[in-house]
Specification:
The chain is an alpha+beta fold. Helices cover 26% and strands 25% of the residues. The strands form 11 sheets. Strands 7, 10, 11, 12, 15 and 16 form a 6-stranded mixed sheet that branches. A hairpin with a 5-residue loop joins strand 20 and strand 21. Helix 13 packs parallel to helix 17. It is globular.
C-alpha cells in the first residue's frame, strides 16, 4: 500500500467459507387454466470450496512485525502478521456460531518457555495424521495435485494445558485483535489486507517466537476453545508459520533539547548547565545505571523526573523519533570565524610524500554551505584534469595549514577504479580508442593522399563500452562505493540518535570523478590530449549533474525499521507538488542511512510504510510494568489535547494484564482497554462540549493502538 490514507474495518467475511456445501434447487409450476400445481426437485450437487488450510504460500504472507530475526526494542509492542486476501482469517470455520470469530490466531512463546519440555514440545508430523488426530474433515486439497507426491510435514506445537489456558486468546480477544486495512497501490487500485495481532507482549532481554496457529473447528458453538489434551496433558496445535526476534535488556537514555523542553524552568536550567550543547548532550546512555550515575548532583525526585523524560527505549518508533537531534553536518560548536569548521571540515593527520607528517584540513563531499569560495572553485575547475593529487592541495593562509580535501577526493577516485579491474580495463580501452582515432585524424592531415581507414571506435557515444562507463560514473556521482570515513570524517559530526543535513560539494565530486578517470593518464602528452579535446568530446565521467542535498541519519530507527521511508521537498510547506526526486537512499551500516535528493532540500519527512504500522504502548519509566496509551480522536486519528500538566488530566489510558494469570506472561486483554478508552472519550466530550466517536469494532481499536502513525517533519534552515 502506498496511499497516505488507510481505512480500518472490523472484518471481511467471504461469500462462502471453505469446506463442503450442498446445492439443490426446487422448481414450482402452476397451470392457471386448470389450477394444477407440481414441482420438480433437482439432484443434490455437492461442491468443495477450497482455501489455504495447513500451508500458506509466500504470496499470502505480506509482512510480519517485528521483522524476522530482528534485534530491537519490541518489549512494548504487540506482534502482528499481514495476510492477503483480506478474507483469509474468516475463510474457514472456527466452530463458533459467530462467523466473525477468525480461525487464525497468533501466540507468542518466550525462549525459556519453548525450551521447557514440560510446557512446550514441537514436532514435525504428516498433515493427514494431524488432521485425523484433531478429527477434522477430509478435503480434496489435502492431497497433492500430482499422484505419488506428498506434502512436507507440518509443524505441531504441543502445549501443556494449564499454560495454554493462560496465553491463548479467547474468541472475544480474537475479534478485537483481527481487522482489515484498506488502501491503494501505486496504480490507484484498492488493496485490502487482513491483520492478525498477538495478545502477548514480548519480554525484555529474551528471544521470542510468534506462531500463526490454526483454530479450525477447535471452538464450540459458544466460542470456547476445546482444551481436550492427550494423555500426557499436552494440547496439539498446528503452527502454519513462525518467526523469531529478540528484545535487548538495556534501556536507553538521552538528554535532548526536546526532553529539556518538557521540564519546569528550575530543573531546565540545572540540566542545561550540567549537559551543555555538544558531546555532553549528544551522549547516549545505554542503561539506567549509567544514566543515573551521570545525575549524581540531582535529587532523587529530579532523577526520577529525568529518567522518565529522557527515557527513549520504551516508546519504540515514536520515542526514538522524538529523541532525534537535528542539525547540520559539522563538529559541535565550530570555532568562531573558522569557515572550515563551519562547512564540515576537520584537521586530520596527513602523511607527505617525503615521509614527514603534518596535520591538514579535510572535508568530505557532504558540506553545510553550498556557496564556497567561488575564486578557489573556479581555479580548481580550470586545473582539472590533473596528473596527480598534489596538484589539488590548497594552502589556508588563515590557519597556515594545507587543505587536502580535493586531493583526497582525487586519490580516492583513482583507488576505487583500480580496485575494480573490469572498470579500469574499460577506461584504458576507452582512452586507447580515443588516442587511436586522434592519431588517424593527424595522419590524414599530413598524408591526405593515403585513404583514411574507416574504423569503429568504442569511445564514441553509443560505443561498446560507453554505456557501462556512464553507469559506473553516474553511480559514483551519487557517492556509491565511497567509504563512510570519507563522507563523515569525525564521529562527533554524527552522534548517536541524530539527523544531519548537508549539501553536496560539486567540486569535491568532480575531483573524485577525475581521479577515477585518470587510469591511463601517464605522460604529459596523455594529459594534453585530454585537455585539448574537452568541449569537443564528451567524456564518460563528465555528465550533467544537478544540485544535490540530503540527510544522513544515525539512529536505531535505521536498524529497527528497515523499511523506513524518506521524502524531501523544495519548499518549507511539504506537498506532493514540491517533492524532490530521491536519487539514493541506502543503509551505510546497521544504524546509519543516507538520503540524497535532486535539488535544494528545504523540508524533510520521515515515516513508515503502511505495512510497518504496528501496535504499541508507552510506559512510564518510573512506574515499572504500567503501560498506557494516548487516546485518539477516531475522526482524524490525532491524540486528544492535554489540558494541563497533572497526570490525572492527561488523556492516557492504563491497562493491566489478564486477570488470574501471572503478570510475567504479559497477556493483553483488549476489552477492558476498549471500555477505558470509551469512558475517557465520553469524559473528554463533556469537557469539550462535543461528542467523540467511540470504539465499536476492531478497526476502531486499531486506530487507538497504532504506533507508527507519527510522521516526522523537519524544516531545513540555514545556520547563518
Amino acid at each position: 500500500m502506498t496511499t497516505n490514507h488507510i481505512a480500518f474495518e472490523g472484518y471481511h467475511l467471504p461469500g462462502l467459507q471453505a469446506g463442503t456445501e450442498t446445492i439443490q434447487s426446487t422448481l414450482n409450476l402452476t397451470l392457471q387454466a386448470t389450477g394444477l400445481t407440481d414441482y420438480f426437485v433437482s439432484p443434490e450437487l455437492t461442491i468443495q470450496i477450497s482455501g489455504p488450510r495447513f500451508i500458506f504460500s509466500p504470496a499470502e504472507i505480506h509482512a510480519v512485525f517485528p521483522p524476522r530475526d530482528s534485534f530491537g526494542e519490541w518489549d512494548n509492542v504487540l506482534p502482528h502478521i499481514e495476510l492477503t486476501p483480506s478474507t483469509l482469517p474468516w475463510q474457514r470455520q472456527s466452530g463458533a456460531n459467530d462467523k466473525t470469530v477468525p480461525w487464525l490466531a497468533l501466540i507468542l512463546l518466550q525462549e525459556d518457555e519453548w525450551n521447557d519440555p514440560a510446557k512446550v514440545k514441537t514436532e514435525k508430523k504428516a498433515w493427514e495424521a494431524l488432521r485425523d488426530e484433531l478429527a477434522l474433515p477430509f478435503e480434496i486439497t489435502d492431497r497433492p495435485p500430482e499422484t505419488g507426491q506428498t506434502f512436507p510435514p507440518v509443524q505441531v506445537l504441543r502445549i501443556e494445558r494449564s499454560f495454554l489456558q493462560q496465553i491463548l486468546p479467547t474468541d472475544d480477544d480474537m475479534r478485537w485483535l483481527t481487522h482489515v486495512r484498506v488502501g491503494q497501490d501505486a496504480h490507484g487500485q484498492e488493496v485490502e489486507r487482513a491483520i492478525v495481532v498477538c495478545n502477548r507482549m514480548p519480554r525484555r532481554g529474551a528471544r521470542a517466537t510468534v506462531h500463526l496457529i490454526s483454530l479450525e473447528q477447535r471452538l464450540n458453538s459458544k466460542g470456547a476453545f476445546d482444551f481436550h489434551a492427550s494423555p500426557d496433558g499436552m494440547v496439539p496445535l498446528l503452527s502454519i508459520l513462525s518467526w523469531q526476534f529478540t528484545c535487548p535488556m538495556d534501556e536507553q537514555f538521552k538528554v535532548t533539547d526536546k526532553a529539556i523542553g518538557r521540564l519546569d524552568d528550575g530543573l531546565k536550567q540545572k540540566v542545561a548547565e550540567k549537559f551543555p550543547p555538544g558531546e555532553a548532550r549528544d551522549a547516549l546512555y545505554r542503561s539506567r545505571t549509567a544514566f543515573t550515575a551521570a545525575l549524581e548532583s540531582f535529587t532523587e525526585a529530579e532523577k526520577d523526573t529525568l529518567v522518565n523524560v529522557c527515557h527513549i527505549q520504551s516508546e519504540t518508533f515514536k520515542g526514538l523519533m522524538d529523541a532525534l537531534d537535528f542539525g547540520w553536518l559539522h563538529v559541535p560548536q565550530p570555532e568562531q570565524g573558522n569557515k572550515l569548521f563551519e562547512i564540515g571540515g576537520v584537521p586530520l593527520a596527513h602523511g607527505l610524500r617525503n615521509g614527514r607528517k603534518t596535520v591538514s584540513w579535510y572535508h568530505g563531499p557532504l558540506i553545510t554551505d553550498r556557496n564556497l569560495d567561488a575564486d578557489i572553485e573556479a581555479a580548481l575547475m580550470q586545473t582539472l584534469p590533473v596528473r596527480n593529487a598534489d596538484q589539488l592541495l590548497l594552502y589556508n593562509e588563515t590557519t597556515h595549514m594545507l587543505d587536502a580535501s580535493y586531493a583526497a577526493a582525487w586519490e580516492l577516485g583513482r583507488l576505487l577504479s583500480i580496485s575494480e579491474p573490469r572498470i579500469s580495463q574499460q577506461i584504458a580501452r576507452w582512452k586507447h580508442s580515443h588516442a587511436r582515432e586522434a592519431a588517424l585524424v593527424e595522419q590524414n592531415l599530413f598524408f591526405s593522399h593515403v585513404p583514411f581507414t574507416d574504423s569503429q571506435f568504442v569511445h564514441r557515444e553509443g560505443g561498446e563500452i560507453e554505456q557501462e562507463l556512464q553507469t559506473y560514473f553516474a553511480d559514483l556521482g551519487r557517492l556509491q562505493g565511497v567509504p563512510f570515513q570519507y563522507l563523515v570524517p569525525h564521529e562527533s559530526m554524527l552522534p548517536d540518535e541524530s539527523l544531519r543535513f548537508f549539501y553536496i560539494d560539486q567540486l569535491w565530486l568532480e575531483c573524485l570523478l577525475d581521479g577515477a578517470f585518470s587510469i591511463g593518464r601517464i605522460t604529459r602528452y596523455d594529459l594534453k590530449r585530454e585537455r585539448g579535446t574537452q568541449g569537443e568530446l564528451k567524456f564518460p565521467h563528465q555528465q550533467q549533474r544537478p544540485v544535490m542535498s540530503g540527510v544522513v541519519l544515525r539512529s536505531d530507527l535505521v536498524s529497527g525499521w528497515p523499511s523506513l521511508m524518506v521524502e524531501g521537498y523544495r519548499s518549507y510547506a511539504p506537498s506532493k507538488y514540491h517533492r524532490l526526486e530521491l536519487l539514493r537512499y541506502e543503509r551505510l551500516g546497521p544504524g546509519v542511512a543516507i538520503a540524497l535528493f535532486r535539488g535544494e532540500l528545504k523540508s524533510f519527512t520521515l515515516h513508515l510504510p503502511p505495512e510497518s504500522i504496528h501496535f504499541g504502548f508507552s510506559r512510564d519509566a518510573t512506574d515499572e510494568g504500567q503501560y498506557f496509551k494516548e487516546v485518539k480522536d477516531l475522526a482524524d486519528g490525532n491524540e486528544l489535547p492535554i489540558h494541563d500538566n497533572s497526570r490525572s488530566r492527561r488523556t492516557n489510558v492504563n491497562f493491566g494484564w489478564r486477570e488470574n494469570v501471572d503478570a510475567a506472561l504479559r497477556v493483553f486483554v483488549p476489552k477492558p482497554m476498549v471500555d477505558n478508552i470509551n469512558n475517557r472519550l465520553r469524559d473528554e466530550g463533556k469537557q469539550e462540549n462535543k461528542t467523540f466517536a467511540e470504539i465499536v469494532h476492531s478497526g476502531h481499536l486499531t486506530i487507538q493502538l497504532l504506533e507508527g502513525v507519527p510522521r516526522l517533519q523537519v524544516t531545513v534552515r540555514a545556520e547563518r
